[in-house]
Structure prediction request, 357 residues.
Amino acid sequence: MNEKNSIVEIWVYLSGSPLLALFITLAAYQIGLFAYQKSKQSPIANPVAIAVILVASIIQIIDMPYDTYFKGAQFIHFLLGSATVSLAIPIYRGLRSLRNRSFPLLASLAVGGGVSIFSAVGIASLLGADKAIQGAMYSKSVTAPIAMGIAERIGESPTLTAIFAVITGILGAIFAPYVLDVIGVKEWWQRGFAIGVGAHGIGTSQAFSINHETGTYASLAMGLHGIVGAIAIPALCQLVN
Amino acid sequence: MISGLVQILFFQSLGELLSKLALPFLPGPVIGLVLLLFWLIIKKEINHSLALVSDGFSKYFGILFVPAAVGVVLFLPQLKANALPIIGALVGSVILTIACSALVLKLASKKGDSHE
Prediction:
């Protein structure tokens, strides 16, 4: 057997097993993390966004259909459900530091959640986005794993929703400090909670890099928004349609 | 570590079961999350192994949605055709959301609350 044939055989073997997809995904995320740390944790160098762009480019270059890639990468995807369940721990930690702030927090969550849906769907339809895009806007402010579950339930694309959710997190982490300064909110717990409502996981990790109180309130907001969103968004969609 | 994973998978399975049988409009993991949260509130503590698994997950949460988000390759033409409304909606919405949530918090909480 000549050398070229054996390389082709190895290639065929690799691209048929989950190994290649898993390797590409982990390696791309590792590169993303490296860039994120090198950039002093700038939200623009978000490791998820970098990993997605890298993996998407690689599978297009090696001509691997998305279905084949996903068959391998589904082992990572599966853990999303378990990670969602584990959000109970940061929510519980947040609840313990609540004191008597429940009323303002719940009011803020209700208003913020409502504004995020109506502004996103409203602006998208005003600017002429098609139906699928508008539909994927409903749950984009909820943390990505829950957002995808909601999207499935309301018959919208989980993929588009996940992409919008990730972009929302990045944008939120970039804009939040300016927005909060402009409206003059100075308390760390208030800043953290608002970031968590609007920019879920990516905003929350940004908030934790500011200080512990900000991060705790951000993850509390992210978790509560996820739970409330999972109940309210399907109900809202039934009402609208 | 293993005991923490067992607890998470237990609540996740319970959530999936309830989602299939009783609450089809809620994703299974969300039900599992709520059940685990109630369990923690009743027990009033997080055991070490559970905390370890949860911290691991939250540290590397991002990588878990890479496989799904790579599905973007299937939507490239549609995203390109709708680029302006998408950018407008996402930027506008995230700014409005953060501003409104923060404003409500500021107005609804009493002054001096943070110094108690």
Observations:
- Residues 66-110 of chain B form one domain.
- Chain B touches chain A through 74 residues (CB under 8 Å).
